[in-house]
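Researcher: First entry.
Model:
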Amino acid sequence: MLVKYRAILRMKYVEMFSYQLSTMVWMFGTMVQPLITMMVWMNIYPDQGDAFILYFISLIMVERLTSAWDVWEMDRQIREGTFSYQIVRPFHPVHWAIAENIVYKGLFLVVLVPCWIVLSIFLPSLKLQLSAGQWGLFLAALLLGAIIRFSVSFLFGILGFWMTKVTALYAMFETVSLFISGRIAPFSLLPPVVKQISIFLPYRYMIGFPLEILTGAYDTHTLLVGFTGAMIWSVLLIGAICWLWKAGLKKNQAVGG
């Protein structure tokens, strides 16, 4: 397994650098929305500018390191019939998708961490004072968030066996995510009813929960609820992928290629 992963990672690494410009444009393009939202909130609450700077710069980091895009590729490949080549490979398609995620997120880290360090020189609010234990909690929450987002994206991709334009359905999921995952506003600014609803949905655990730990906006109860909810959703989504994959292969009918 490890030997196969090393081979796939090398292939994805070469593939990524074959499209350097598009990769960088895509990565930096996703930073626009958080920065605009940050400026809006800073105008509304000018006395909390430092808190918003820390939150939304952290949001850029967390959002990139948990992002998933497999649904777009799978939707196109299933419709065109080229996904059949993925199915007949000896290695499950999910491993190729995981390897691609690892490679691209490695690039994000290489670019974003130095940017954070440089910005922290001019913006003291970005100087994190986290203990080793807090970093451990953040990394665990970040990993769970990445698993949930990847699983959701891959799950929607599998629905392409039954639907011809599953990306439209996924776009609706992402629209709701903007408001409940913590991407539009910190959870402290959301209405109480939205906070209660978010406990039972996967959105908060994808982005908002890791952000709460990184920015220090948490207590013991938040950690308990956050890790419990994230682990439950991770298990449920992975189980759903296994079940839907088997059903999807029976339904699969290549329409192109």
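Researcher: Second entry.
Model:
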Amino acid sequence: MVAREKVSSVKLVLWVIIALTTLAIGYLAAGLFVADRLSAPSHHPQELTPTDVGLNYYEVSIQSTDGLELAGWWVPGNSPSQAVVLVPGTEGDKSDRHILKTASVYAGAGYGVLMIDLRAQGGSEGERVTMGYKEVRDVRGALLWLNERGFAPGEVVLHGFSLGGATVLRAAPQSGVAAVVEESAYSDLPLILRQQLPKVSGLPSFFTPGIFLMGKLFLGIDPWAVRPEEDARRLCEEGVRLLIIHSKDDEAVPFKHAERIRKACPEAAFWSIEGYRHVGAYAHPRYRERLLNFLRTLEANESTYSGLLK
């Protein structure tokens, strides 16, 4: 009788172990599936070209610092010492309307304008969209491309949107760039993923840590390393000027992300707008004025610049 009870207990323990192992495998497999799907390349038909906003341009090829070939458009400017890199967001590319409308503002101010497709998006190489983890290498490659054409880092503005905004914040510290403009950027990748993953994956938030873990272990994406608010803090310490643009009605990246970036860099100029969707500031009637005011402060080399944007 005792022997039978021992055998039954052992079987029960084994069944529990098997069940827990099966659940763990299922949990991690679901995490890997979602991480794989959400980081897949994004290549969409081209929306517009610079010609559609009255700009002459060249198609160019840029190398990321880890060797990927990136597609770009180059609009030469009137000034030999002013350039901007425009960096699009997730599921976007250089042909997006907000990119080209912004390009026309810079071109009108005499800047040379370099528009790039980040890795695994648009016309660029790459197997994964890494949400700002490896995309910093693309922005650094763009800076090298400009440097080879006579533009020192201190003559370059980095301007990014959403993922591109987070990426330029990460790429800018210690780069020597003149300034950074970010629109609709997230302040902390784990935070925005915890907010958005249950919606886009259809899975309960319980699965989110598993998605993070499998992305890091199997896809080479470390979400915990992407904290743009920390990079904004470093920018302030270096004295690099920063303009934050964010709508209180942004449906993709909540406004509190902009507030966190501003808190990390109190000296930043902060333009908050209402009634505009994600990366929709370009349609605001004062967009051109606000951006040009910020650029003028760079030219004037003023010690304080927020006042012009109030």
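Model: Note on the second entry: The two ends are 84 Å apart (CA to CA).
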